[in-house]
Automatic annotation (TrEMBL), chains A, B, C:
Residues 177-326 form the Aspartate/ornithine carbamoyltransferase Asp/Orn-binding domain. InterPro entries: Asp/Orn_carbamoyltranf_P-bd, Asp/Orn_carbamoylTrfase, Asp/Orn_carbamoylTrfase_sf, Asp_carbamoyltransf, Asp_carbamoyltransf_Asp/Orn-bd. Its EC number is 2.1.3.2. It comes from Ktedonospora formicarum. It catalyses: carbamoyl phosphate + L-aspartate = N-carbamoyl-L-aspartate + phosphate + H(+). Transmembrane segments: none annotated. Signal peptide: none annotated. This is Aspartate carbamoyltransferase. Catalyzes the condensation of carbamoyl phosphate and aspartate to form carbamoyl aspartate and inorganic phosphate, the committed step in the de novo pyrimidine nucleotide biosynthesis pathway. Residues 23-167 form the Aspartate/ornithine carbamoyltransferase carbamoyl-P binding domain. GO terms for biological process: 'de novo' pyrimidine nucleobase biosynthetic process; 'de novo' UMP biosynthetic process; amino acid metabolic process.
């Protein structure tokens, strides 16, 4: 009797493979090197558009829900600006307390379908790993863009990190970089490794305390995917020819005692002018996913090699503009 | 000496009577059958406009305050989308904590007059019954649209419910429907009964536990207003020829004990595929004001007769677009 | 090696001196009488634009962050409306809880630089005195507009107050006015005195309890800056020829005991119809920065001399539109 016509959600969630229109962006794994280059090329145009300060109507008439189940003012602001700079409009749900239907007992899936009815796309932030995939499975007609789902994925962060490298060095292969800090647990570092592994001949130095090294199976995986990886435990082993440093925070809770933390980490996993002077090259750029908490001394800010509050944060805007234009079929 | 020129607020709050421009929408009682048909005709155009994905400038230059004194993400999102799809702009006050002037001791009336000065209309959500009328009484120059004032009224909910019936069946008279659940207390059901009573020859089956029947005076009132009402207490008495089922939640707190609730309600006031198979017709549509909490099994979602997450929620957008365009004098 | 090119923030923060474009608006002291007249002239045009209800594109393509570290729904609404009536867009961060990066430990300066990357201007509300200046010091490329930083400054409040006088009387010199209430502590009154002191031959009556008089050094300062000041402690000494009354709240906490408060203040520092009838002139306008809490009886509202819920609040919209258009270089 009653028949249901449903779009295959697998298709929306599948690899981009050159065709962004209508696709969900849930995981970095959906994007190939070619897909990333397409985003980067468009991001370059977006940058010019912002610098020219010309009103743009690319997303005119589009209404996009910013559905934030946990606060994240930076990511929220970046997406909101991206949409509005393209002439689109937003529905802002940024305080978890106001997702009132959920408080009343509505399922997450019902909330997604309700906002699907109001919107041309949903940008979703959620504390639970896998939430973006669940949303993509139930939204039939519009793209879901993952703006971070717990410790699972935050694909637009990695896209902006890769674009920052691409923009500076004109390529994403044959790079040498340092990833430092909590190599074992950092979602951001793992995603960046996955992104870099899509390109040829990249050499990565992983600097961390011994107990925060990459899991052995992850190390094997990334090595099998083109990456040349060196694990180091002392800043003394950072090579001078790194094109980039990417620093992440080490939480005290990772250690059994404060004294172990003090021995292993304190004072040693913070970028200072002295550290830069001793181990960085003239062209080494210093990156940070922000917020930086103990990772980079503010004295480093005025060094032009520090890009975290300059091109890196701005590239988040340009790449999100590009990605939204693509999935909404406007570019 | 000092003289005051004040618009008669009675005029703004009066029956629409064919002229929406500048009127408040506080109560369903302001609208006649003809007024509703005018909204429905325009809602049909709005639906086409949304489906065509063409940017619209009908509310260009209009700034509308969404003044939400209690959270309601669904209603907020629906109004925000309605305004933005018509090219209008919003001032979002959706977190009660941020209505800071009220926290500091400002009267509700002062807050309304302040936001009147900033806006072309105010969409008001408030936990207190009568708040929308109070707002309408003090806003002199712009329309107030009631987006729910406590257990009093939520007129746009009823308008979208009626439109959902109208769109599907091409009429609002000569219908047979089932309203089930907390018939005694549900604001939504009472409003829907009032709406249906504006049209000829509708037959309504009210299904509820004995103790949650309509008040006798309300029953008499609705019967005096054209409605043919049958009260039933068992699903076995649902007639096969219902055009629609409208299900509402029964709260445990309505019963003296959990065992009474379990006897009377549990498992019996939830729509399941089995219930549909046994008692619904081929054309019976299943409605719910959402959030659904225990009222409808998710297994029912894929049945095409289930409209609550499909046309019903989308019709909220189209009818709110229509209503806003009308009170703002743009249609 | 690494070189930094930084705009002189002193230049952005300096006196306006006829050139608003790109300047921060942190303090009233940046504006001369000529600068204020430029704002007022433009505010007049803005008023006409709003009254004509014509869509305006002056800020088309501009994205402005409303960064509110404490709730202030009235100021938020006024700025949001000003931006949107000019065709601009906003990024709304109005709930302090959602400034999540700060919660995570990000410095205020980093947050400002992140939002600078997303925006063409930042409107900042912050509970800490001096926050606006700190923001202006670290935002290199875009203007910061102070929307109130603790008990320090709220320059747009004073600009709207002065414009309200200017609009009504056609001048800001040769006025006689009453400032009443907490003359010792009110930020609003102090700023208004500073504003009025920029113009010639104004006479101000300061009405307060003895213990809430202006500090002697402030009194001397304002007298040295053109103002003719009379301190009074009884309403009986209010002259009939005041062009305006500006009333502010006296908090009970200012007194050692409730009985002292009752003796000194209660019933005496509230504007009532009787007080107006006895001491105000036919042309005296009654102003209040809102929210009014105990300062003005609601019975006064219908008196046409009461402008606080009429022109005064609307002038906040017009002057903010003017100021934003000026600092963004669009007027």
């Amino acid at each position: 009797m009653s028949q249901t016509v449903t779009l295959s959600t697998n298709e929306k969630l599948s690899a981009i493979a050159g065709d962004f229109k209508g696709k969900d962006i849930v995981s970095l794994d959906q994007l190939s090197a070619d897909d990333l280059h397409r985003v980067f090329a468009l991001a370059g145009h977006m940058k010019q558009l912002v610098l020219d300060k010309e009103p743009c109507q690319l997303l005119a008439g589009q209404v996009i829900s910013l559905l934030f189940f946990e606060p994240s003012s930076r990511t929220f602001g970046s997406f909101a600006s991206a949409i509005k700079r393209l002439g689109g409009q937003t529905i802002d749900i940024q305080n978890p307390e106001t997702v009132s239907s959920v408080k009343k007992g509505e399922t997450f899936e019902d909330t997604i379908r309700v906002f699907e009815a109001y919107s041309d796309a949903i940008v979703l932030r959620h504390p639970q790993p896998g939430a973006a995939r669940r949303a993509a499975m139930c939204a039939e007609f519009i793209p879901i863009v993952n703006a971070g789902d717990g410790n699972n994925e935050h694909p637009t962060q990695t896209i902006l990190d890769l674009y920052t490298l691409y923009e500076r060095f004109g390529r994403l292969d044959n790079l040498t970089g340092l990833l430092a800090g909590d190599v074992l647990n950092s979602r951001t570092l793992h995603s960046l490794l996955r992104g870099l592994s899509l390109f040829e001949n990249n050499t990565i130095y992983l600097l961390s305390p011994e107990k925060l090294r990459l899991k052995r199976e992850d190390l094997a995986l990334f090595r099998s995917r083109n990456l040349i990886i060196h694990e180091i435990t002392s800043e003394k082993d950072i090579p001078r020819d790194c094109q980039f440093w990417y620093w992440t925070r080490i939480q005290k809770e990772r250690f059994d005692s404060i004294s172990e933390y003090n021995d292993m980490v304190a004072q040693r996993f913070t970028v200072t002018p002295a550290l830069l002077a001793q181990y960085a090259g003239q062209e080494t750029i210093v990156m940070d996913p922000l917020p930086r908490i103990g990772t980079i001394d503010t004295e480093v800010d005025k060094d032009t090699r520090a890009v975290y509050l300059r091109s890196q944060i701005r590239n988040g805007l340009y790449t999100r503009m590009a990605l939204l234009a693509l999935v909404l079929g406007r570019a």
